[in-house]
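Sanity check. The docking grid for adenosine-5'-diphosphate depends on where the pocket ends up, so I'm generating a full predicted complex first rather than guessing from homology. Inputs follow.
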Amino acid sequence: LPLLIGGFVAAGVVMLAGGWLAWAQAGAWKRAAEQVSFANQVSHELRTPLTNLMLNADLAIDDAARGGRSVSPRLGVMREEMERLSRIVENVLIFSRGRHRTRQLREVDLVAPLGEVVEGFRFPLARKDMSLSWERPDTCHVATDPEAVGRIVVNLLSNAEKYAGAGSAVRVRLAQVQGRLRLEVADDGPGIPAGQERRVFRPFVRGGSSTREGVSGTGLGLAISRSLAGELGGRLMMVSAARGACFRLEIPLAERRAG
Ligand code: ADP
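Predicted complex below; grid placement will be based on this.
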């Protein structure tokens, strides 16, 4: 009989513990879902005023240029900071929408839209005495979502700007190699230390150098970029380079559906 009672008590304890665990886990999932939805709403609210701010800053810069007046460099710095804020908001929005959305792929020539993204970094990089080279073919047709490719390039270039350090060289290269679109963003900064190459692609993971040197960030850029590459039926990887960091996006030219 004591054995039987002992058995019942043990079974009861196990069931209680299991129930509590399931309840705690359900609670944790609910909390996480609430946080993600909150982040989504906040970033949505931030988007409109931020877009208006950028638009007005651009108009002020254009007005001054048309009137032959010089613009205060402070306005340029403010415009850059707005851009940075907008990148954070967009990344949080993409992250909070969840992974593996179906993307509308369409046949486009990526040279002009990507050129615009790359040129957008010329001034901020030059201010840090960093050079920028943009190598591309005359045309590059692929069935893709140019906005998603642009977002990946923005994230990679903004990392090069943040981590490569003053005076370094940044290179963006677009090419078609063996039926694939290949887009590389490389810099000759300190690069990613051995052993961290996989970790840095995880959400919210930031490399040692970023925290040590006080570079701000959310740890979402590479995770989102890799997930976007997957939605485009391609992949984003780090490739080894003699110096610095080199990231490569590959998308099959013929593939029309995301994998
Ligand atoms: P964040 O920049 O917000 O930290 P990311 O996901 O874009 O988030 O990058 C993750 C980490 O990868 C960074 O914290 C940094 O340590 C490292 N990293 C990314 N790009 C580079 C680069 N070009 N050079 C050196 N380290 C980099």
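Relevant for the grid: The CA atoms of residues 73 and 79 lie 10 Å apart.
Also worth noting: Residues 155, 159-160, 163-164, 187, 189-192, 200, 206-207, 209-210, 217-223, 245 surround adenosine-5'-diphosphate (CB under 6 Å).
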